[in-house]
Amino acid sequence: MSCRIPTRSSSTAGQKWWKSIVYTYYEWCRVAPTATTFYRVPNRHFAVQATSTGSSSDSSNSERISLVIQVPNTPGSLTQPLAVLGKHKVNLSRIESRPTTQVKQPDAAYDIFVNVSDDTTSCVVNDNNLVNRIKNAVEELTSQGIKVTVLGEGLDSSSMATTSGESSTLSGIPWFPRKMRDLDAFASRTLEYGAELDADHPGFHDKAYRERRQSITENAKKYRYGQPLPRVDYTEQELKTWNTVYTELTKLYPTHACKQYRYIFPLLEKNCGYSPHQIPQLEDVSEFLRECTGFRLRPVMGLLSPRDFLNGLAFRVFHSTQYIRHHSKPLYTPEPDVCHELLGHAPMLADPDFAEFSHQIGLASLGASDEDIDRLARCYWFSVEFGLVKEGEQVKAYGAGLLSSFGELQYALSKEPQLLPWDPFVASKQPYPITQYQPVYFVADSFSSATDKFLKFAETIARPFSVWYNPYCQTIEIIDSLEKIMKIAGHTKQSCSLVTEALRRLDGK
Ligand SMILES: [Fe+2]
């Protein structure tokens, strides 16, 4: 599934395949290190969105629809589902099995994960015939009491409708996850890095390093919702790399990081094992974030597509790598690694206002067109990755790409770059260079005002419905009818009653 990302210069008019290069391709600064070291750390979490025009021969397109079939651990239990799929001429390109993650299921039950392909076409998305065959197969399996979950962006969204009327609303809308478990579909859909490295990666020629990454990314690939996050027993060499990064960056935080970061970081040291001598475990950090804002971390093999990565934010899920950069260049890496995730992103996700801002970007991405995903990814880039925020008369950093980069953190707060007020309408169209530090950064007044501005921008996302995240069920609800609007109004009414009661009690003191 790994895709090579073309540089701008290699993108020609004839290569419509790559529609998101400008904002998703990020090449690390290769300014020759001189007296001043221009090392940069990674600040993207998604790779180029491979948007097929139907003319590509990339076989990865044939794996966009997947099924998860639950079967008991009895001899021949897979025979029946396979027979039904065969009957409906649904070809399979890959089959995996693993113990089911559903707590209420007996231990003997298994999830059979299958990728659907069609050898008659390279583009599943446009093959309505295949979609209909899958639908028919799923219906027959369901009628036989076999539980099937459909995953994948190629399937017409009408097939994932869960309530009456949603079918017509979602017709033609790109697939998006509706429940937390749907994020399992992203586990093996990374587009870049993971276990595979570019030739210019510092660890490319290091066999031991590659094997180490392979073992860590395998854990991420196998991870499924509901399981404890895999723990990594980091080596002395990895700890030494972490120590260098940690020691250098923490020198800058008191003067360069925003107040929210400065407040949270000591809490992470106290509660999650943050220290120069220890790499925190994702599980511990994730639990801390859940208690603070409901955000959680989820291991990922490498770079996701912009759509998948942003969709995860809608569930307050942040996809996080677990491997560390190569020890030969501790202050340089061409990709997100555990230093970038835990030092750049995790602290800010514990702030309620920042968490809400990130969540809203995620919600806006659900079912958005490719063009709108482009715009949202740029907003994400110039805020969550490279954002600055006012602090009195000063400007501080909150973007993870800055907070995990010793060089760019200082550069961004120097007099050199241009600073613009945070405006998502501008940021969504802002180009950026790929071989040097950003010439432009956006400065928010506060996270709550940044969210207000973003919500106005999100109204311009072209889709025929609104979405609401139900935190109790951890599901996305489609708001496309008066009945559903009334349901939301009921929640709002209850919140208003709570506020009124609280004010009355406060007034009575
Ligand atoms: Fe990042």
Automatic annotation (TrEMBL):
Names of required cofactors: Fe(2+)
Positions that bind Fe cation: 340, 345, 385
Transmembrane segments: none
GO molecular function: iron ion binding; phenylalanine 4-monooxygenase activity; prephenate dehydratase activity
Keyword Metal-binding tagged: yes
Highest taxon of the lineage: Eukaryota
The EC number(s) this enzyme carries: 1.14.16.1
Catalytic class of the enzyme: oxidoreductase
Cited InterPro entries: ACT-like_dom_sf (IPR045865), ACT_dom (IPR002912), ArAA_hydroxylase (IPR001273), ArAA_hydroxylase_sf (IPR036951), Aro-AA_hydroxylase_C_sf (IPR036329), Aromatic-AA_hydroxylase_C (IPR019774), Preph_deHydtase_CS (IPR018528), Tyrosine_3-monooxygenase-like (IPR019773)
A single BP term in Gene Ontology: L-phenylalanine biosynthetic process
Domain ACT: residue ranges: 66-153
Domain (Biopterin-dependent aromatic amino acid hydroxylase family profile): residue spans on this chain: 161-507
Family: Belongs to the biopterin-dependent aromatic amino acid hydroxylase family.
Protein name as annotated: phenylalanine 4-monooxygenase
